[in-house]
Amino acid sequence: MQISHIEHVGIAVASLEQAIPFYEKLLNTKCYKIEEVADQHVKTAFLKVGETKIELLEATSDESAIAKFIAKNGGHGGIQHMAFAVEDGLANALNELQEKGERVIDKTPRKGADGLNIAFVHPKSTCGALIELCENPNK
Fold first, then answer.
1. 130: helix, coil or strand?
2. How far is it, in rounded angstroms, from Cα 4 to Cα 41?
3. Where is the VOC domain (predicted)?
4. Given 11, 99, 113, 114, which residue has the most CB atoms within 10 angstroms?
5. pLDDT surpasses 80 at 139
6. For residue 63, what pLDDT band results from cuts at 50, 70 and 90?
7. Are strands 33-37 and 3-12 parallel, antiparallel or unpaired?
8. Going from the N-terminus, what domains does the chain have, and what CATH number goes with each?
9. Is there a contact between 65 and 105 (Cβ–Cβ < 8 Å)?
């Protein structure tokens, strides 16, 4: 598996309405996309800093991983995941990880926000961090 770059950093927030203006000022850039990913029970907003994106994530349901993350974090948001772009195909990367005995949440790629195919690696295989792998959008 060849990782080319950090694709984005996912930050859980209680409210996109409150978070977007803060991050726009902090990063001196505008939010370029807001979308809902219904099957993940999340609404996302994207900002770009250099070549890296910041993904703000707001839960749309108490069943969402974002709602659970915020609840576990004492009602506060924070960095929820790091996403890496893979060069040699997401399905290949998942197969390689599984062949090495690593735990994955997604055994096959699925559609994520911002037009990416994504898959998550289980925190038990990453020393506690939630890692998302993405198809390299530049490839």
1. coil
2. 29
3. 5-136
4. 113
5. no
6. very high
7. unpaired
8. 3-135 (3.10.180.10)
9. no
- For 54, the 3-state DSSP assignment is strand
CB atoms within 10 A of CB 124: 9
Report pTM: 0.92
**Alpha carbon of residue 95 to chain centroid:** 20
CA dist., res. 121 & res. 127, Å (int): 11
Question: Which of the four pLDDT bands, split at 50, 70 and 90, describes residue 38?
Answer: very high
**Is 20 in a helix, a strand, or coil?**
helix
- CA–CA distances in Å: residue 40 to residues 21, 50, 58, 121, 128: 24, 27, 11, 16, 21
- Provide the residue type at 74 as one letter: G
Distance (Å, rounded) from C-alpha 95 to C-alpha 124? 17
Q: Tally the C-alpha atoms within 13 A of residue 85's C-alpha that lie toward its C-beta.
A: 15
Sequence-separated (6 or more) residues with CB below 8 Å from residue 14? 58, 70, 75, 77
Residue 13, Cα to own-chain centre: how many angstroms? 13
List, for residues 64-108, the tens digit of each pLDDT value. 999 999 999 999 999 999 999 999 899 999 999 999 999 999 999
